[in-house]
Write a structure and sequence with these properties.
This protein has 486 residues and is mainly beta. It contains 3 helices and 29 strands. Bound molecules: CU-O-CU linkage and copper (II) ion. The site of CU-O-CU linkage (C2O) has 10 residues, from β5 and β28.
């Protein structure tokens, strides 16, 4: 059995850069040259996509197991959609579910009206209704889609999909493999267990009973011996933290949440709900295998096993710098405004719910649907909890920001639990972390360790943007809010 690796060693020693505050992290290893800029775009295609959210049947426990009534966007259990940076997506969603839904394009810097948050950015797409999302893909990378209402119930039943935006490669890898991790909460007869429990919602989340990659079981396959294998690992589970390592091959981290980083050797990398990790692996000699393993669980669990098969290609030196540099707005740290957010347990008192919008604010007239709120809260951001069913009004924003201005957010975890914190519509830079060493990098979701303090920086984009913990029961039970950028 393979032992658990050093849990707090997020990255390899050569790339280890400890937090040094707002000024950022120490220099990267000298031998890796900076990534070069992506050439300018030459115009994109218009891609017409069609999603029908409805109940379908799947055998999640294996081909001879019982059937389960899943909810999906397409006939595939884990669709992998591919587009190119600069393409325009025109995606029609038809809703055949019994409740309203939407599509949130996690990590994509969409215009606010395309962000897929019922009540905040669009009307909910009710049963029998349709909505067409249309936007141009601004950045390449590894993203995903999911609904933004009753998330534990809808994604728990299967509503998710991988979205790969190509155009970040200087050189094509020899294989491009997706490992989309997501557990199922199933009883032995294939029926659903409750997606939420008080125990889970008030602590580390309710875990699935069946672990799965790309829908069912573990992944496996053949790869060309000596080839460069791009692995896109996505944690699409609503609760589980993964600690990803590769056994049997040399592996470099090449992108985090889809954003290229100067490659560094993978030791292990910790991923909360919604986080993505792109690796470049040098496949071993023919006949040998390598594995992608989660070392976080008490027994390591294999997400994928890949066997090298003989190939005609001749070996060249392993150069993990296959991606172009990111092309993202960078905050001006000297002029940035600082704001601080504390993630804590809620006081549970209705008085703490921030339902204090100006009376003439149009949002105050919108009633929240009972499906988007729960009947109690356990969690809060800056002492404000996302409303319960007793308070069906959009709360006041957690912060009011100015379009185009730079911000540094200080995120503080006042709890003994992990919280993967996500900001919609922005790709922020993780400037410093107090507990788990990470190189400075761009991300849309960052894992706050228990009691950790993290600083992120970004340039504000116009709109109302959700800001929340991505552990689904935490957001359902209060750890969610939004920022107004105007
Ligand atoms: Cu995957 Cu509100 O986000
Ligand atoms: Cu949380």
């Amino acid at each position: 059995m393979i032992g658990r690796r050093g849990i707090l060693k997020g990255i390899g020693a050569t790339a280890l850069a400890s937090a040094t505050g707002a000024s950022g992290l120490r220099a990267r290893p000298a031998k890796i040259a900076p990534l070069i800029a992506r050439p300018p775009l030459k115009g994109g295609r218009v891609l017409d996509w069609h999603f029908t959210a409805r109940e379908r049947s799947a055998r999640l426990l294996g081909p001879s197991g019982p059937g389960t009534r899943v909810w999906t966007y397409t006939d595939d259990l884990m669709p992998v959609l591919r587009a190119h940076v600069g393409d325009t997506i025109r995606a029609r969603l038809d809703n055949d579910l019994t409740e309203h839904t939407a599509i949130h394009w996690h990590g994509i810097r969409v215009p606010n009206a395309m962000d897929g948050v019922p009540f905040l950015t669009q009307s909910p797409v009710k049963k029998g209704e349709s909505f067409t999302y249309e936007f141009t893909l601004p950045d390449p990378g590894t993203f995903f889609i999911h609904p933004h209402c009753n998330e534990s119930g809808q994604t728990g039943r299967g509503m998710t999909g991988v979205l790969i935006v190509e155009g970040d490669e200087r050189r094509e890898p020899d294989a491009d493999l997706v490992l989309a991790y997501k557990d199922w909460r199933l009883a032995e007869d294939g029926s659903w267990l409750p997606f939420e429990t008080t125990e889970g919602a008030s602590r580390a989340g309710t875990f699935g009973t069946v672990r799965a990659v790309n829908g069912i079981g573990s992944a496996s396959g053949d790869v060309p011996a000596g080839g460069d294998i791009r692995l896109r690992v996505l944690n699409l589970d609503g609760s589980r933290v993964l600690e990803i390592g590769v056994d049997g091959a040399e592996a470099f981290v090449i992108a985090i949440d889809g954003n290229a980083v100067a490659p560094f050797p993978l030791e292990t990398w910790r991923m909360g709900s919604a986080m993505r990790l792109d690796l470049l692996v040098r496949a071993p000699k023919a006949g040998q295998s390598f594995k992608v393993i989660d070392y976080y669980s008490s027994e390591p669990w294999t997400l994928g096993t890949y066997r090298s098969i003989a190939s005609a290609q001749k070996a060249r030196a392993f150069d993990p710098a296959i991606l172009y540099a990111t092309d993202l707005p960078r905050a001006n740290l000297a002029e940035a405004e600082r704001m601080s957010f504390t993630f804590s347990a809620s006081s549970g008192s209705a008085a703490d719910m921030a339902t204090k919008l100006e009376p003439n604010d149009p949002l105050s007239k919108i009633l929240l649907d009972g499906l988007c709120v729960r009947d109690k809260t356990f969690w809060a951001i800056n002492k404000a909890s996302w409303p319960t069913s007793d308070h069906r009004q959009l709360p006041a924003p957690l912060g009011v920001l100015q379009v185009g201005k730079s911000y540094v957010f200080e995120l503080m975890n006042a709890t003994p639990h992990h919280h993967p914190i996500h900001l919609h519509g922005h790709t922020f830079e993780v400037l410093s972390t107090s507990r788990l060493a990470r190189p400075k990098h761009f991300a849309d979701t960052v894992l706050l360790q228990p009691k950790e303090r993290i600083e992120i920086a970004f340039v504000a984009r116009e709109g109302d943007w959700m800001f929340h913990c991505h552990l689904l029961e935490h957001l359902e039970y209060g750890m969610m809010g939004y920022l107004r950028v105007a």
